[in-house]
Design goal:
alpha/beta; about 40% helix; Rossmann fold; 14 helices
């Protein structure tokens, strides 16, 4: 098996992340985080977390970060600090002082577009890489305006798929958090992960910034049969080194499996009233009804523009014009089925999540 070790770049990234966190001091806003009952969306990458987040980010009572929380959390939680084991984080993964600082940074960077825009929807519907980068730049500017005159506590919606591996940590970071777990039909989720791995991270001659890629320069050491890239994409799951010599479909399957298995196990230890699991397919079939269920569970008031936004769900995380199989709707049906055939544990987890995996797609 090829040896995969932490690179100098990886160590430097962890150090930069730590400095990034230190630079987020929030003098003048008090010693507490100012955040109460945040809604933490978790799910495997490409399971529908982005779509769900954008709908909730439209709610006038909810604040959010300009993007996923990688720049915030991967100061103290960067995997280079633990020998590249994984993105897994336990309740005691950081010190009490670091926890307090993280809470302050989340508060400082939160924004609420409803405070300054009549219709924030155009800023939450971009899908192309170029539009996402432009949108993030605009959000950073508008976020400062939205915080003008802010006093008291806020409610936050946070969406970072890697947090599927960090439920105990997120529960300690925000002890009153509500966890919204979204699951998706396994083949569709794995297929979408494959498409994500194979999509470009370039805009013309430019490569996406480090934290926008949300990956690590370690994939080359795996010697995958059908991937020669250097960057690992999406969640770094426990046991990833065992995939050496395998295929990209094996990687995508492992990511779907570990993110959902670990999240489901961890969520059993959270009080039931703080956990809601929703199926991506149910949300697409009846977005208004599913959104209403979420609002009731999260104890949120009138949805404002969020309800209209749900009725015209935007396309998100599209991976270019890849052809789909007419029968299954998958882009890589044979690869997905081969990976599943060699991983029998997937069927039991699928049933646990409410799906069946009997036979090929």
């Amino acid at each position: 098996m090829p040896t995969v070790t932490a690179t100098a770049m990886g160590r430097n990234e962890a150090e930069r992340g730590a400095e990034h966190l230190k630079g987020g001091s929030c003098r003048g806003i008090g010693t507490g985080s100012g955040i109460q009952q945040p809604v933490v969306i978790i799910g495997a990458p490409r399971s529908g977390t982005t779509l769900l987040f954008r709908c909730l980010a439209m709610h006038p009572e909810l604040w959010h970060l300009p993007a996923e929380s990688h720049p915030v959390l991967e100061g103290p939680l960067h995997p280079a600090r633990t020998g590249w084991v994984s993105n897994r984080a336990e309740a005691d993964s950081v010190s009490p002082g670091e926890l307090a600082q993280l809470r302050r940074v989340f508060f400082k960077r939160a924004l609420n577009l409803n405070r300054i825009l009549r219709d924030p929807a155009p800023l939450l519907t971009g899908s192309s890489l170029g539009r996402r980068l432009l949108t993030r730049t605009m959000l950073l500017t508008l976020g400062k305006l939205s915080r003008a005159g802010l006093a008291g506590r806020i409610r936050l919606v946070e969406k970072t798929p890697k947090n599927s591996l960090r439920v105990p940590f997120m529960d300690r970071l925000f002890p009153d958090a509500k966890f919204l777990h979204i699951v998706r039909e396994p083949r569709q989720n794995i297929d979408s992960l494959l498409a994500g791995w194979r999509s470009s991270d370039r805009i013309g001659p430019l490569r996406l910034p480090r934290f926008q890629r949300a990956g690590y320069p370690i994939a080359g050491g795996l010697s995958l049969k059908d991937y020669r890239g250097r960057w690992w994409r999406f969640a770094l799951v426990p046991g990833w080194r065992s995939l050496a010599g395998g295929t990209l479909a094996d990687v995508a399957l492992k990511q779907w499996y570990e993110c959902n298995r670990i999240a489901a196990d961890d969520l059993r230890l959270i009080p039931a009233e703080r956990v809601l699991t929703i199926r991506f397919e149910d949300f697409l079939a009846d977005p208004e009804g599913a959104f209403g269920e979420i609002l009731t569970w999260a104890e949120l008031g009138e949805p404002g523009p969020a309800l209209a936004f749900c009725r015209r769900l935007p396309r998100v995380n599209t991976a270019g014009p890849m052809a789909r199989d007419r029968t299954t709707g998958l882009r890589f049906p044979e690869e997905v089925d081969r990976a599943l055939a060699g991983f029998p544990e997937a069927s039991s987890l699928a049933r646990r999540l409410g799906y069946e995996l009997d036979g090929p797609a």
